[in-house]
TrEMBL record:
It comes from Ruminococcoides intestinale. PANTHER family: TYPE I RESTRICTION ENZYME MJAVIII SPECIFICITY SUBUNIT, TYPE-1 RESTRICTION ENZYME ECOKI SPECIFICITY PROTEIN. This is Restriction endonuclease subunit S. The keyword DNA-binding applies. GO terms for molecular function: endonuclease activity. The keyword Plastid does not apply. It comes from the Bacteria. Keywords: DNA-binding, Endonuclease, Hydrolase, Nuclease, Restriction system. InterPro entries: Restrct_endonuc_typeI_TRD_sf, Type-I_RS_S_subunit.
Length: 491
């Protein structure tokens, strides 16, 4: 007999994320010859019903097909970096270079958290501009196009490099479509860690559209990723202006004064009057005080994000049971992991009818709002681009609504900087899952510059970067529309 009232408590608490999917049974018949053609594989995923439909659509399409890769393939070379022992170093290490995972490669402006020493050992982890990258393990089928930004980093061996003589943007666009991704994922193997190999891509058919269509799609993708590069350069310019105006040294140069180097562990003293009700060491790290004191010295004023001159609202949505629906029947829903992507992968759709009130009051986001992840990976910051308008984001993301467009870009540049990241993370609490809340965000220090023209310039550069990202999104959507209407579903 159960005497506990735990079940009753769980039923009434509004703190559990529940996702239910009533997926009908899918089945199909497969010929023996098809099993042999597929390498005598018996996994159901190889003969997925939707994959078979996608294959039939491509094979019976307007244009003949060619293999994605192989002797007659549209891709000349498909390979990935060799496995090696990763000896990570600090960013300050001589010849260090950022190392990007197959999920980070999807970000508009990848920010590596791991670094390796550049040299012969990691030579085949480099990627060239114009190469298409395809994730081959973990979440399989995610695709990106190597632009100037991404070419500066090493990329994990978990991404297959697809190199083409020409029209690599056409390959990227096809793999970005639902049909293309479904065909790639039909070749997955592995019981524990699922993956694909370059050899499997020989069985992925691609419509051999006329040269004019291929070039049109390719040029749109090249221009889209060029705009992403330009937006990143504008953000770099804005950040450089901020650092120069505030005479900020690098994070590593901030002296942690009060650290007792002779101790077996890092230690520092804190006055009782400065505890602020927090006895966790991370809140009182000397680097935090060093940054704030430096800002006070060189800024006209150091205020907080909660200042009405900075933000009109800081929203932390409550937790709730999510009801998902099919595409077209609800609002686009994204989480913190997708925050740095231009067109987030694996989008879900939240029911309008079930969550309409909550969506309007808490979840809906608007252009130029700054988003900050509040749990798990804390401190990821982005500014909402125009095409995210009216989308909804997870309750694990805090919304900072700027007081006006005159401060929106500046606010985002500071919070997204290395210095802003330290000031955000100082509020971290939790013994198992790290978190911050809206009250903490309102207390984050932010400087107002003495030179108002420089502050305005920083703000305008950030807003211009956000507009370029919106234009980049539109160009990619145009390429996808051409691929769908004039190639895949063409009559």
């Amino acid at each position: 007999m159960v005497n506990s009232n735990l079940a009753h408590k769980l039923d009434n608490e509004n703190t559990i994320d529940v996702e239910t999917n009533d997926i009908p049974l899918k089945w199909c018949s497969v010929s023996l010859s098809d099993v042999i053609f597929r390498g005598k594989r018996l996994e159901a995923s190889v003969f997925d019903v939707e994959a078979i439909q996608a294959l039939a659509l491509i094979n019976n399409g307007k244009y003949k097909t060619v293999p994605l890769y192989g002797d007659q393939g549209i891709v000349n070379k498909a390979h990935y970096g060799s496995r090696l022992k990763r000896n990570y170093v600090t960013p300050e290490h001589e010849n260090s270079i950022g190392f990007i995972s197959s999920s980070e490669m999807l970000d508009i402006y990848p920010r590596p958290v791991k670094f390796m020493v550049d040299g012969e050992k990691v030579h085949d982890l480099h990627v060239k501009e114009g190469t298409v990258l395809l994730s081959r393990s973990g979440t399989i089928g995610n695709v990106t196009f190597v632009n100037k930004t991404l070419s500066k980093f090493l990329v994990s061996e978990h991404a297959i490099r697809l190199e083409c003589t020409d029209n690599s943007g056409y390959v990227y666009t096809f793999l970005k479509t639902k049909i293309g991704k479904k065909l790639v994922c039909s070749n997955i193997y592995g019981a524990v860690i699922q993956q694909i190999e370059p050899a499997h891509l020989t069985m992925v058919p691609v419509p051999d559209a006329p040269k004019e269509i291929k070039e049109r799609i390719h040029n749109l993708i090249v221009e889209s990723f060029k705009l992403r590069d330009e937006s990143n350069e504008l953000i770099d310019q804005a950040t450089a202006l901020l650092i120069d105006e505030l005479k900020l040294p690098s994070i590593s140069e901030f002296k942690q004064n009060n650290i007792k180097n002779s101790a077996n562990v890092n230690a520092f003293s804190v006055k009782l009057s400065n505890l602020a009700g927090r006895v966790d060491a991370s809140y009182h790290l000397p680097i935090v005080d060093a940054i704030v004191n430096h800002l006070r010295k060189y800024a006209e004023e150091v205020t907080t994000v909660g200042d009405e001159r900075i933000s009109s609202d800081i929203i932390l949505p409550g937790r709730f049971k999510r009801v998902y629906v099919d595409e077209g029947f609800g609002r686009v829903f994204i989480g913190g992991k997708q925050l740095w992507e231009l067109d987030p992968t694996n989008k879900k759709y939240l029911s309008n009818s079930k969550h309409n009130t909550r969506i309007i009051k808490e979840l809906e986001i608007s252009e130029n709002t700054t988003l900050i992840t509040r749990s798990g990976t804390i401190g990821k910051v982005t500014m909402v681009p125009k095409h995210w308008e009216h989308w909804v984001t997870s309750e694990h993301i805090i919304r900072v609504v700027p007081s006006s467009s005159e401060i929106a870009g500046y606010l985002n540049v500071f919070l997204a900087s290395d210095y802003g990241n330290v000031l955000i993370k100082r509020f971290t609490y939790g013994s198992v899952v790290d978190e911050i809340d809206d009250n903490h965000v309102s207390q984050i220090a932010i400087p107002l510059l003495k030179n108002k023209d420089v502050q305005k310039q920083i703000n305008n550069l950030a807003l211009e970067a956000n507009q370029k990202r919106y234009k980049a999104f539109l160009l990619e959507q145009q390429a996808l529309e051409i691929m769908d209407n004039e190639v895949i579903f063409a009559k």
